């Protein structure tokens, strides 16, 4: 397994509200863990929300004796949501803060994915890039209902309005996905600072033409900034299994 992570403040923001965590080694009963969180809220609330949510997530996972990855993740996200609400109610400066979260743990040949909000997980192989997660956003709902096209959604004025987030309410609705992996597959977790600025096919081409995950990550951040860098950028790349190369 290989991984690389990078965040960048972008071209328009002064505070980086994106937060990443990566571990190729066990976290509690999970064999590995990769997380992207995109915080929101005024002043310092957004960067606190994303980092604190991940901090609570990790501490909860480490204390959980369950062996089922989905149950472990669900409980940890619910705890992080509760703690964010508590912090917001205790500190007026943090009122209204929240964060997206997308994460993955790889168990054997399967990736177990969870997401809340519009941070994404993609699966990239030699032939295509597939968005595994579904955005919890107003424009995504409009696309599903046929009110706007996918192309319209990219530049829609309401594209930053999300419909789910940690810290938004007492109950948090988490989507789960499991993905069968094959050697050579690459997973990309990212905030909307990347996905709103770089088309999916360009993302795939960068990853496939880079020699290393680090090179790919740095090129993606540069491309997002070159295209305007309107938001913070978070990128986590994971290669669960290296493709075997035949030696003649």
From TrEMBL:
Pfam families listed in its UniProt record: PP2C_2
Swiss-Prot/TrEMBL keywords: Hydrolase
Keyword Hydrolase annotated: yes
SUPFAM superfamilies per UniProt: PP2C-like
Domain PPM-type phosphatase positions: 3-240
Family annotation (InterPro entries): PP2C, PPM-type-like_dom_sf, PPM-type_phosphatase-like_dom
Annotated EC: 3.1.3.16
Hydrolase keyword on record: yes
Gene Ontology molecular function: protein serine/threonine phosphatase activity
PANTHER family in the cross-refs: PROTEIN PHOSPHATASE 1L, PROTEIN PHOSPHATASE 2C
Protein name: Serine/threonine phosphatase stp
Taxonomic source organism: Blautia producta
Protein's gene: stp
